[in-house]
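Need tokens for this chain, all 180 residues.
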Amino acid sequence: MKALKFTPLLLLFAIVASCTSVRVATDYDKKADFNTYNSFAFYKPGIDKAEINDLDKKRILRAIDAELSAKGLSKNKSADLLVSIFTKERERVDVYNNNFGYGWGWRPWYYGGYYGNTVSRSTEGSLYIDLIDAKTNELVWQGIGSARLSTSDDIRDKEERIREIVNKILAEYPPDAMKK
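Here are the structure tokens for all 180 residues:
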């Protein structure tokens, strides 16, 4: 019976944990030698095309700068890697048949309480980080992070969420096979 008391708490924890997760996927050119890349610069034409407000764009670029610098890459105008970003946003609708609901009514097989569905709407964003070889102008690495976006008006929450997403994406760089 004591275990039943903690079940709602565990369920709440699972729901909150699933809302904060960042799903990441990466791809890279197997022929690229990631050990030769020591510097980076932002690719302005690509960044200008990103459909996101300028304040969030700056937050993303600062987070990328911090993560790549922490990996030992330096920011330089004549860089080995060019960094570009791309964003997508979509509304996510989840329908849960959870037997919670309200109301009374007649059903063909019984008369009694109505148990319905719960509908949850949220905005999910995807951030693509492209790393381009500056000499060949070819894409050598791409990381994609998808997560629910912060609806908070608190700027610190928004900045923390952006740092978390960028951190999770760039945690996959360089590819495992090429790490020093």
